[in-house]
Amino acid sequence: MALLEIFVTVISFIGSIALIFNQIYLLVALGDLSSDIMGPIDFCQGLEPFVIPEYIVQGVITLLYLAGHYWIGFLINVPLAYYHFNMWFTKRGQKRFDYTRIRRTEVIQHENKLAYLKLGFYLVLFLLNLYWLVMSLVHHLVPSKV
After folding, report:
1. Pfam families, per this entry (predicted)?
2. pTM for the structure as a whole
3. Is the four-CA dihedral 133, 85, 114, 108 of positive or negative sign?
4. Where exactly are the structural domains of the chain?
5. What is the spatial distance between Cα 130 and Cα 109, in angstroms, rounded to a whole number?
6. Residue 56 CA: distances (Å) to CA of 1, 19, 34, 53, 127
7. Nearest Cα to 22, choosing from 63, 65, 59, 51?
8. How far is Cα 138 from Cα 9, in angstroms, rounded to an integer?
9. Would you give the distance in Å from CA 145 to the centre of its chain?
10. What per-residue confidence (pLDDT) applies to 146?
């Protein structure tokens, strides 16, 4: 059980770091798009390969919390996992970013708000993972004096 707890915390910690970098990359690309540094086709082609891995990593973290009995982490992640699951199956066969719509100001603002919300969520997730990682390592690797 101790090895499972350490495995869950390490993998979810690494996954949360990857998700944070993914959202930062998206925010930088959205800034480049809104300031005409990047074109809409380059934006869509550059970011589309990161959509499915984000969904998968976040889903794996949610399932790891369930397997490791981290109920708080699991319950926090369920709404976003449901959102990703819904986005995956409602846009099946379609691209997440449509280069014909992405240039509209309201679409850029919506994607920007969504990216900032996800970044905040992933930062909270990162802090929780850091806490749980330290606690599991201290609990299982440091001998207790009885």
Report:
1. Cornichon
2. 0.88
3. positive
4. 2-141
5. 31
6. 25, 10, 28, 5, 20
7. 51
8. 12
9. 39
10. 61
Tokens of 55: 């969904």
pLDDT digits (tens, 9 = 90+) for 60-74: 999 999 998 899 999
Alpha carbon distance 74, 67 (integer Å): 9
Distance, CA of 60 to CA of 66 (rounded, Å): 10
Dig out the tokens for 8 from the structure.
């869950």
Q: Hey, how many other C-beta atoms are within 10 angstroms of the C-beta on 125? A: 25
Q: What are the tens digits of pLDDT across the range 121-130? A: 999 999 999 9
Residue type, 70: Y
Closest C-alpha to 1, from 144, 130, 140, 138: 140
Q: What's the half-sphere exposure (Cβ side, CA atoms, 13 Å) at 62?
A: 18
